[in-house]
Amino acid sequence: MAAENLSVFGHDPWWLVVVKAVFCFAFVMVTVLLSIVMERKLIGWMQRRIGPNRHGPWGMLQSLADGVKLMLKEDIVVKRADKVVYILAPIVAAVPAFMAIAVIPFGPAGDEVSIFGTRTTMQLTDLPIGVLYILATASVGIYGIVLGGWSSGSTYPLLGGLRSCAQMISYEIAMGLSFAAVFLYSGSMSTSAIVDAQHNRWYVLLLPVSFIVYIVAMVGETNRAPFDLPESEGDLVGGFNTEYSSIKFAMFMLAEYVNMVTVSSVAVTLFLGGWRAPYPVSAFWEGANHGWWPMLWFVVKLQLLLFFFIWLRATLPRLRYDQFMKLGWKILIPVSMVWLMLVATVRALRNEDYDFQSIVLYVAGAVVAILLVSFVADLFRGRGEREREVPDGDGSFDPMAGGYPVPPLPGQTLPPVPRRRSRRERELSEVSVSGGVHTLSDESAGSRDGKEAGGA
């Protein structure tokens, strides 16, 4: 297990703390600007389009031009909005997104670098519960989306905010369970200690299920396609930010991309070795993990994960909301819980000095037993559902029984739709009601005889 050594933090002079904080903010902002341009260009190339090419060399300043354009647009506040909450919501969504980067290590804690002649670590600060701090800041950011949807005073933004809240509850459970497996292996919740614990093997190899669960959960947590249900234009117009414009809309967009950078940085730190160089480089070059080089490896891994976000958006269609909730509650959470129990069992057996073959045998036996129990449970559950599907009574159905039109339940049938009458039958019915059936018959017969005579 990794030993926490946080004594190197908290000794920087105040001006150096300010410099490092400004660097973290600038790093996130520059990464966001590059990510927006990269997303528009890559999706354009994937869809056989040109992409942005007007602002700056090769269109690299397009995202900056979009930010200036949004700031100069008219700022509209709708009449029915709760103005205080309406204005504060974008700030609540954007500010916590920047806070998580404070505990992300860009380099080893024991290998200091020189900044303006002062030796310091390549990390703003660290905490014994650094990963829980990241989870807390990510959770606070969701309140901005929920409050923005509620304060707009409109139906579609409210539904978008409620969807975002449901996503946060569903996918943070799976995300926390994937983190718990990392805590068991590293023996720490400190981000720097977790990276130090991966000196022999990255956790993406030791804990592949946790990594996959976290990747899916981080896409759902950031409301990105194919999980962008809170702002689905197909059924919610624009979702929670429908009634926003100008700089407030830009802050919501900024929060989304900053969250992408944050969750990708957490994935790099917890599963991909953090600032450590990949295996071929670290094996043949001793200085790969010293000096300023660790920042290069961190940035490369971060950009690869951001490319993964863009690739998903250009490839997969948007899920239905029931499919999205089913994925979180019926697949990700149960798989994470079973995997966490297996990881805890392996760690406990290793602490008791069991050999590797015995551990594999016990784990394989547990997996087989769980699969058999789930198969039997599904078999009996399917039989019970088929028995309940037998219709009761005569199967009659009244679609307006509760005052609102409702679809039929299993075993019920809709009443037959009346056949549309022909024009001749409608005319006969109208005349018969007025008592002139014979007159219509005589007139029609006379007109028919006249047409025949004219034809002859």
Automatic annotation (TrEMBL):
GO terms for cellular component: plasma membrane. It is an enzyme of class 7 (translocase). Residues 405-417 have a biased composition (Pro residues). GO terms for biological process: aerobic respiration. It catalyses: a quinone + NADH + 5 H(+)(in) = a quinol + NAD(+) + 4 H(+)(out). GO terms for molecular function: NADH dehydrogenase activity; oxidoreductase activity, acting on NAD(P)H, quinone or similar compound as acceptor; quinone binding. It is found in: Cell membrane; Membrane. Keywords: Cell membrane, Membrane, NAD, Oxidoreductase, Quinone, Translocase, Transmembrane, Transmembrane helix, Ubiquinone. The chain crosses the membrane at residues 14-38, 84-107, 127-150, 171-195, 201-220, 257-275, 295-315, 327-347, 359-380. InterPro entries: NADH_UbQ_OxRdtase_su1/FPO, NADH_UbQ_OxRdtase_su1_CS. Residues 386-456 are annotated as: Disordered. It is a multi-pass membrane protein. Residues 445-456 have a biased composition (Basic and acidic residues). Its main location: membrane. PANTHER family: NADH DEHYDROGENASE SUBUNIT 1 (PTHR11432), NADH-UBIQUINONE OXIDOREDUCTASE CHAIN 1 (PTHR11432:SF3). Belongs to the complex I subunit 1 family. NDH-1 is composed of 14 different subunits. Subunits NuoA, H, J, K, L, M, N constitute the membrane sector of the complex. NDH-1 shuttles electrons from NADH, via FMN and iron-sulfur (Fe-S) centers, to quinones in the respiratory chain. The immediate electron acceptor for the enzyme in this species is believed to be ubiquinone. Couples the redox reaction to proton translocation (for every two electrons transferred, four hydrogen ions are translocated across the cytoplasmic membrane), and thus conserves the redox energy in a proton gradient. This subunit may bind ubiquinone. This is NADH-quinone oxidoreductase subunit H.
